[in-house]
Amino acid sequence: MANVISKEILVDSENGYCDGHFPERPIVPAAVELMWMTDLAQEHGLCCESGYTVKNMKLIRELVPGTTVTVKLLQGKRGWSGTIADSDGLFAQCNLIF
Which residue, 8, 39, 67, 92, shows the most beta carbons closer than 10 Å to its own? Predict the structure, then answer.
């Protein structure tokens, strides 16, 4: 059976995720989306701060304040697949190797 871990995150305009990116139309930077995935991995003891490999990161939709997303990691044969999504579909996906 596959190992899956996940958590919900509210993209609140007060949390600073979108500061300066972009003032007239704020969106969450890809680096923050990746940070959410690696933070989830660290919370579950899957990786350490010293390193991981990201492969094939795809940004599918812009993620804006006011959205609640599910960050999910699914264990596969060659690492972990990470996704960020809401009920309307994916915002981002990538493969992570810890």
Answer: 92
pLDDT, one tens digit per residue, over 9-28 is 999 888 888 888 888 889 99
52/59 Cα distance (integer angstroms) = 19
So what CATH class is 4-97?
A: alpha beta
Structure tokens at 52: 């991981």
Strand order in the sheet with 4-10: 4-10, 68-76, 79-86, 89-97, 53-59
Query: Where exactly are the structural domains of the chain?
Result: 4-97
Q: What is the pLDDT of residues 25-83, one digit of tens each?
A: 899 999 999 999 999 998 998 876 677 889 999 999 999 999 999 999 999 888 899 99
